[in-house]
């Protein structure tokens, strides 16, 4: 019994070392195309991945693509400074892509009739620690909410439309 408990503890420790520091946190203050604050995202490293809570308002009702982009810069109005999707493993775009998806491909978010989103999700394949999958690589990363939903397959960005909102991920 001691061996099983010890092996489990060792597996959790090694997982934490490989994927970042469990308990590390980050946040993003999300702005719209006018540079006005419309919400936040909070991130926390856990043994299962990076937990994220998104709390934003002032969006058009309906589904919106949500991605991690490879540059930690959000210059309005179009947020092109955030670069392409975070893709440290050089995969194709979309959850439905048989060749794998970008690490920055996240679930679509749905704004309610009042334009609000409050959702929790788990991000796999990224870390708040060190290494190539770190969201704190040189240049940083940003969260981008797009005007349209992500179709889950079209490379490079899922036909997600214009970049509607953006937030730089910071420690």
Question: What does this 3D model show about the protein?
Answer:
The chain has one helix at about 1-20, and strands at about 25-30, 35-45, 50-55, 60-65, 65-70, 110, 115-125, 140-145, 165-170. With about 170 residues, it is mostly beta strands. The protein has a seven-stranded antiparallel beta sheet, with no helix packed on it. It has a two-stranded antiparallel sheet with strand order 4-6. The termini are far apart. The model is unreliable at about 1-20 (pLDDT under 50).
Distance from first to last alpha carbon: 39 Å
H/E series, N to C? HEEEEEEEEE
Q: What would you call the structural class? A: mainly beta
Could you name the CATH homologous superfamily?
Answer: Superoxide dismutase, copper/zinc binding domain
Shape: globular
Helix amount: 10-25%
Poorly predicted spans:
1-20
Major β-sheet strand ordering: 5-8-9-1-2-3-7
Rg over CA atoms, rounded to whole Å, is: 17 Å
The biggest sheet, with number of strands, parallel, antiparallel or mixed sense and barrel status, is: 7 strands, antiparallel
Top CATH class: Mainly Beta
Count of distinct strands: 9
Topology:
Elements: H1 2-19, E1 25-32, E2 37-46, E3 49-56, E4 62-64, E5 66-69, E6 109-111, E7 117-123, E8 142-146, E9 163-170
Antiparallel strand pairs: 1-2, 1-9, 2-3, 3-7, 4-6, 5-8, 8-9
